[in-house]
Amino acid sequence: TQSTQYKHEHLLSEKGKSRSFTHFYRSFPLPDNFKAHPKPLELVGGVPNFQIFPVESLKVGLRSKPFPNGYDTDAQVNAATANAAPSKDALSFDVLVDASEVNKVAEKDHHEEIDIKTGLQYSNTPGMDPLLKFTKDFTKEVIHPGYEDWNTILTLGGANGAYKAFEAVFNEGDVLLAQEFTFTPVVQSAKDIGFDIVSVPMDFQPTTKGGKAELTYADHLSKLLDNWATEQPGKPKPKAFYVIPDGQNPLGFSESLEHKKKVLELAEKHDFLIIEDEPYAYLNFQPVTEEPNFQLTTKEFIEALGDSYISLDTTGRVIRLESFSKVYAPGVRTGFIVGHKRVIELITEYTMVSTRNPSGLSQIVLNNTISALGGLQGYLGWIINVRNEYLKRKNALVLALQHSESVKKGWAYVNDAECGMFVTFVVNTGDAESKHEYMMNEFRLATAQTGVLTVSGGNLSISEEAKKERANFVRISLASAPDLKTLEEAAKRLSDAVVLLHKDDK
Ligand code: PMP
Ligand code: PLP
After folding, report:
1. Is-contact 400 487, C-beta < 8 A?
2. What sign has the CA pseudo-torsion 194, 195, 201, 204?
3. In this structure, how many other beta carbons lie within 10 angstroms of the beta carbon of residue 289?
4. Where does the Aminotransferase class I/classII large domain lie (predicted)?
5. Hey, what domains does the chain have and what are their CATH numbers?
6. How many A from CA of 124 to the centre of ligand 1?
7. How far, in Å, from the CA of 46 to the mean position of ligand 1?
């Protein structure tokens, strides 16, 4: 019945639509007026009794904030404090075997805990109740889709979410559009499911002086779609567009609202879905030219995130991929998908025959952290702290690169990342296109000599043309360096590598 309500049913995969999972233990129909026992004994599922679970208690300690001791010190000090006793104001919580009494608390914003008896048991495929409810509260409060009939389901992280979204959409031979620079593991999903990827060229303008950068591709997309038959002869029109709108990986830009509107209009005109992958959206920065605000309220933080594709969507055309990896921890292998309830229905059916729900231990730890922090508002407070740390890192790195010799001489420039985990450092290869690949190879060799490892732009591209003509940059991660000094030293080494390329210049 839902299929008739979903406007984009024709864009869903045949395989996805054909599944219908039925439990072998569903109840059998009784004749009319049959007097069944009101309270039958349930001896149904192969559901182990929780008293055989070996775990009887769990205690989790929480940091008061990321880097509680700061990291403006040197790496050695940090290594020493990493295992120091927890700070006095740090939180901790116990996971109970049975939290039903605790969960009865009638406080308005009480976030339910998952206990051991429930968390280590078989559970609902879309997610355990409190955590699934959290994804819905988060969606309402922070993401606000532009229509009513949306739903959510937990995934095993963003990458798994992407695979599941693709599985719900693509038949063999169908076409996915993706940005020419993108999170390339989508290519592996394409090989696995059998769909084709067509790359969308991008324009990106540098901001050597720290002003607002621009990432645009709507005009290229429009041209490609209008001339599809000649540009991509023999290929069916695309069914979906995979996009990383905020904190683009690898470029670090965010799309403007006007740009998102243009792309959504194209999706309507040419009838395709948009799959927005937003693991970085909450690491939302200010430019280096602005005084950083480390005191954002949750309201200010949410407002600064701006509108997403799904918030502009009124018909269920957008599927949004969320991940706890970048703001909580990748090892919990948990994320969620927001989409039209029909799309979530297909993804739920696929989840039942593939991964099932994320690990109960992960759901316990994640959910009860949220609970200990005080629910959604407390969790947003944690995300703001994470964002603040990345902002410090971003500013330190961008400023160090801007003041480096190579940038001052005009031999390279740095993009002031708007959001996310990556800063791009662009090597000026001059006008001679023939020199481009040669220069980038020389640059990589030079960085091996000065001692800094980054990712080549070309390694994060799905387009041969982009690799040849527009991949004169490296992606620098802000994430794993122990401190700001390390990032500043890395900036110097990157710059020195460019200087080596110019050693014969006068
Ligand atoms: N195989 C058989 C034969 C089973 O009976 C069950 C559980 N009822 C499973 C697999 C599912 O096991 P798991 O919880 O490891 O997915
Ligand atoms: N999507 C993008 C754009 C990413 O950059 C990453 C991680 O690098 C992922 C998805 C995978 O994230 P997860 O750990 O949630 O699977």
Report:
1. yes
2. negative
3. 12
4. 109-494
5. 116-386 (3.40.640.10), 389-501 (3.90.1150.10)
6. 15
7. 8
